[in-house]
Amino acid sequence: MSVVVLTGGVGGAKLVLGLTQILPADQITAIVNTGDDFRHLGLWVSPDLDTLLYTLSGKANAVQGWGREGETWTFLETLRTLGGEDWFALGDGDLALHVLRTMRMSRGDTLAQITADFAHHWGVGITMLPMSNDAVATSLETDAGRLAFQSYFVERRCAPVVERITFDGAKQARSAPGVCEAILSADTRTILIAPSNPYLSIDPLLAVPGIEAALRAATAPVVAVTPIVGGDAVKGPTAKLMRELGVAVSPASVAAHYGTLLDGFLVDERDPTAQLSLPTFACDTLMHSLADRVRVAESALRFADSLR
Amino acid sequence: MSVVVLTGGVGGAKLVLGLTQILPADQITAIVNTGDDFRHLGLWVSPDLDTLLYTLSGKANAVQGWGREGETWTFLETLRTLGGEDWFALGDGDLALHVLRTMRMSRGDTLAQITADFAHHWGVGITMLPMSNDAVATSLETDAGRLAFQSYFVERRCAPVVERITFDGAKQARSAPGVCEAILSADTRTILIAPSNPYLSIDPLLAVPGIEAALRAATAPVVAVTPIVGGDAVKGPTAKLMRELGVAVSPASVAAHYGTLLDGFLVDERDPTAQLSLPTFACDTLMHSLADRVRVAESALRFADSLR
């Protein structure tokens, strides 16, 4: 029996890492947001896929919260002396993924094939699927105009006020081979929605035709892990974004956002659950240590099993 | 009055560096071989142009003889773990040139424009022109089959026996803007052929339509600096290649190869000049130190002036 996780980058990677400590890797499928992907300096960058690769292969920079441990920055320093764009921090080792990915894509390999090869080379045993092999680009309408995701997220550090979020190319995209199959499989025990940003990391996934319908048709329970802890987001722009979109920063807002898609909601013990009309389970959902990640993953699985 | 130098990479860069110590930079034009250029991992690599950039901006790795001083190798080490091709040593800082060049070429900028910008950013004041903005690819017919230049030079370390050398695309290539103009200009005092490999570094230049004719039509004397010192090549595969092509490793063979293109030949004092039927000047042409480079550059200019 397998577990499927819909995930963005950092927070989701922690949950998936927790799962890998308690389940055999071949029982885990991560379906990963690629709405943050973009072409930078001609290179195809897939931040969420790479964060999962780094986290699951033990290469992630835990202190920094993104990128690689032991990274060097000679490329970026040299690029700066040539007048190249330096707002997006491309580490020297990180570049290897981008250069190889870009070359292989130009030869006609799919993002899914390339991701599977990278995972294989780094000993990552889970099935890592991009949500789609087609380009889907999250962009934001803000008080500073329309911004591509990385321009909003990295270049502008999430400062602009967001009015609306779109997923360009999503309507034409096909889910990557295996994505809907994994969700619909009779062997799938649980479908988890990681504690990633619902609007920026999970919505792009749901915007790819077929994925939301598959989730609704799945026999396995769909359980979200809250991205809100103690009335705030653990990390990133989630809370600011929710306020800008006019919703309260609470698990109730997240539950309302996912609506009838969810069969259950793993909330944090710090937050009130009175408003929630779906099955919930409350625990400490902060995942600072590896033990925390294992504990949250275990709680999510046990809770989901109770809903079957 | 200006000086024009036809040059390959390492040896030629030393001569050009010598020239920059005795002439104002705006009186020097280097016309640079791009037959070694190739696309590697999707990136456009221009080894001779980059060697000149590194040498003239003080960034060259003098001990290693190629690449950058203070280079790091995180990209290549990471690439290796992903199963990427690692036979061509791409340093982290070196990558900045290749990534930026490739991105700008894909946007339609010419190699000449990009090279001029790189030189400008690094304070290289001479005019650096690629021989052509069009792709010309040196390849070698060898006892190991037909090999692209870098495959022969780097991957196979010049081990295969060379039978014939071709410059694919040369016939269709146009010389870069300014190349023939610099050669033909009435302001040009001297045209030097650097002590680069005649077969692999200078012949590609001569294969681009118009360049050889311009040299023959130029009013300035054309003077070659010998790549042969004491009956051997200073560096690289020149001597091995000459033997394989059936010619003696001597200045006479180089003079015969260039033929009537030359008005004079700066030979090394270690080598016999009796066989040479063109004007020669002999001196110590080894360029270990910066003082050596200045001395050889001065000798070449003085000798050329004597031929006007």
From TrEMBL, chains A, B:
HAMAP family: CofD. Its EC number is 2.7.8.28. The gene is cofD. It comes from Sphingomonas natans. It comes from the Bacteria. PANTHER family: 2-PHOSPHO-L-LACTATE TRANSFERASE. Pfam families: CofD (PF01933). GO terms for molecular function: LPPG:FO 2-phospho-L-lactate transferase activity. This is 2-phospho-L-lactate transferase. InterPro entries: CofD (IPR002882), CofD-like_dom_sf (IPR038136), FbiA/CofD (IPR010115).
